[in-house]
Amino acid sequence: VFAMVAGFLLNYSQHVRDKIAYNEKVNAMFSAGTYIAHELRTPLSTIRNNMDGINKYLPKLIRNSKILIESDIENADYIDANKITQLKKTINSNNKQIEYSHAIINAVLTNTNLHLYKDQNPSKHSIKKCIDLAIQRYPFKPGQKELIHIDGPDFRFNGFDILVNQILQNLLRNAFFYIKKSGKGEIFFTTEECESYNCLYFKDTGEGIKSDQVKRVFNRFYTTRFEGTGIGLSFCKEAMINMEGNITCSSVYGQYTEFTLSFPKIG
Description:
By secondary structure, this protein is α+β, with helices and mostly antiparallel strands. The protein has helices spanning about 1-70, 80-110, 125-135, 160-180, 210-215, 230-240, and strands at about 125, 150, 155-160, 185-195, 195-205, 245-250, 255-265.
């Protein structure tokens, strides 16, 4: 009896220590993420203000350059039309990157403060608009956007569009990583209206996931990537449950990986 009690106490004590260490790791990571996210807002805002200042005086610069061109003044130092067009594109591109960086910061804060949404009232959103927004905000590399295909009817869900956007951003990021790793693959968004749930299927035909890893992909801190943190898919799971839905994963290694996002039907 003594041996049994002693063994139970030792196992329980180890379990408590593991739980405390796990919670400390979670809190430390989330605290660091929140701090870094907040600190990045200031320099981004400064860059944005600088871009707005340049954009404010750009029309005058363009006007003066046109005057110099039309005057045909010898040795005039003006900016030609091609450079002006490129300058406009650069400013617009920088502003988009700043907006995307703010979106990333919001996503980090969303990941670390998911519990805040439990006390907020959800609202109705279009799944197609969420898909379009996620694609619009994703920082594609050359050739990546052409790999995306969208099919199926639109449906509305009751929840938070910011959470769905972050879920899709996480799925896109993972999909492109494994497509690049395998040297092949495309991405398919497919929507379907079912009896009790409306579903969004997110499928990539990249490397796929090994069968013994599929059941662990939603575990917090579980990752097979050297640079991974193991919190992206766990966030997806928690966010879908928060909206009274669910997300599941199926995969055939070497062929595809598919995530099914299930949203409760609404009237």
